[in-house]
Design a protein that fits this description.
mainly alpha
Length: 87
């Protein structure tokens, strides 16, 4: 996924900026072998509680594109999960 350069593909996968994500149970153990950078680990730790994609982008030094691509990868691997919207 790190080689995907299409915003459209990534945007379809991660959704709107207000969608919230949270780390799955055991996320640290699952991510241990991924060779994440310090900034990527920080992003993952920011998801210990439900956090919007918008807030993840605001809190990180990583480019928004890279954040969205990382969120997509972590979703696909089951390390992150979408938090259902409260009606």
């Amino acid at each position: 996924m790190r080689r995907i350069e299409s915003w459209d593909r990534i945007w379809l996968a991660v959704g709107r900026p207000d969608i919230q994500y949270q780390a799955a149970d055991g996320a640290d153990d699952m991510a241990r072998d991924l060779q994440l950078t310090l900034e990527e680990w920080t992003l993952l730790s920011n998801c210990e509680r439900p956090t919007s994609l918008r807030d993840l982008c605001r809190a990180s030094k990583i480019r928004d594109f890279e954040i969205c691509r990382l969120v997509w990868a972590l979703l696909t691997l089951g390390i992150l999960k979408r938090v259902p919207a409260v009606p």
